[in-house]
Amino acid sequence: MSKLAILGGSPVRKEDFPNRKSMGKEEIEAAKRVLDSDVLSGFVGAAGNFFNGGKEVKQFEKQWAEAYGFKHAISVNSWTTGLQVAVGAVGIEPGDEVICSPYTMSASATSVLFYGGIPVFADVERDRYTLDPKSIEERITPRTKAILVVHLFGYPANMDAIMAIAKKHNLKVIEDAAQAPGVYYKNIPVGAIGDIGGFSLNFHKHIHTGEGGVLVTHDDMIALRSQLIRNHGENATEAYGVTDISNTIGSNYRFTEIQAAIGYEQFKKLHGFLEHRKEIGAYLTNRLKAIEGLHVQQIEEGSTHSYYMYPIRFDENVFEVSRNLFLRAVSAELPKPNYWDTTPLAEGYVKPLYLNPVYQQKIAIGKKGFPFNTNPGVEYDYSKGLCPVTESLYEKELMLSPLVREGISKKEIADFADAIEKVVENISDLRNSALNKETNTQLYDATKAIDENVK
Ligand SMILES: *Cc1c(COP(=O)(O)O)cnc(C)c1O
Q1: Complete domains list, the chain, with CATH
Q2: What UniProt keywords are attached to this protein's entry (predicted)?
């Protein structure tokens, strides 16, 4: 048995993990073609041929819609604005409650606030990390209008149960599939299983255009309302014969021609990226699944995982060391991260959203408490303890690896698995070491580790 690197032994791997390289010559050619054309955006903020953008935007949207059989695909300048569009398009009004996950990127819930809706947080399933149907049912009131589900880390939420609840209570369903492009839930592509949903095209996502997003839906009216919100809808409702003009004041959430041209080339690569992630993700799962005290996700029949992050759940009762110490021991076996994507393991994901000041102080739009004070006599609960599974995942159970991605081969994933196995095999050395006596309550901050390494 070899000595753990954190206790002075030699590490499993010294060589850096390769960075991701996302842009190829196809994207460069596409961007150049648009620059040469001099038409960098094809949108006009009035009804007519260019209300829904230029040639590249239309081609990009068509490609996405056709590949997965979505009736409509609507590009936007970010997925954060895409979520706002979705909330507006399904008709959320001031005082409406929307059931949200607390374990996600902040925009999943703040999108609701932009239309005066109130995020009501339900807990997540421990094995799936996505909204727990039982907890959703407990949070439903006469004011509930929608459920905003997130397919976290690229694995679909429990949609059969969630759609059944939505049907029973007449609720809209919005899918935040930012981390799950091209993912299937029981053979159906995610994004438009509910009323509307979509994907992020920011720099960190599987495929990207720097910033950007795509909405998808099978509903013609929701699609039209989304297009109105994207592009100054107030100028166009009459021309399009829209009689319910609520929530159709538009903004400028338009995708540019360069972004669309790059996105068109990126999209062609998506399938290959997902296949690669599937292969190395399955390899890692096979290596880790028998380890007592670690839990890795199993993929249900007909569903897929995009491994935006590879989640590993840690049981401190089995190892008798903290997650933080375990993670530091694994990290010591591997090269130091020089970039987020080269971080072998991180912990916690994000703080449960309701613990952020916006919910703690109930101050969002203006200073008077809107929209949290919209329903007289109703007090919204955002206290610690609200979602115990989420809090436990954040505080001590969940570890994440961004290594299941393009540019990482099976050899590198094998080194990662070797590092974890080495720490598990030598766990008693770690347990008995002086390090285990430290009370370290600080989460391992990958960003800080990268900063220190780079300077
Ligand atoms: C990335 C992400 C968003 C926001 O997307 P942007 O394109 O960065 O605005 C929203 N929700 C989830 C779950 C995400 O991962």
Answers
A1: 25-266 (3.40.640.10)
A2: Pyridoxal phosphate
Q: How far apart are CA 176 and CA 187, in angstroms?
A: 18
318-345 residue pLDDT tens: 999 999 999 999 999 999 999 899 999 9
pLDDT digits (tens, 9 = 90+) for 145-198: 999 999 999 999 999 999 999 999 999 999 999 999 999 999 999 999 999 999
For CA atoms 336, 339, 345, 348, the dihedral sign is: positive
**Contact at 8 Å (CB) between 269 and 263?**
no
CA of 44 to the centre of ligand 1 (A): 27
SS3 126: coil
Q: 111: Cβ below 6 Å to ligand 1?
A: no
**Which residue's CA is the closest to the ligand 1 atom numbered 8?**
202
- The Cα 91–Cα 203 span in angstroms is 30
- pLDDT for residue 437: 81
Six-digit token pair at 407? Answer: 């540019």
Residue 201 CA: which ligand 1 atom is closest?
7
CA angle (162, 164, 168) in 5-degree steps: 120
Cβ of 153 less than 6 Å from ligand 1: no
Cβ contact 276:37 at 8 Å = no
368 is catalytic: no
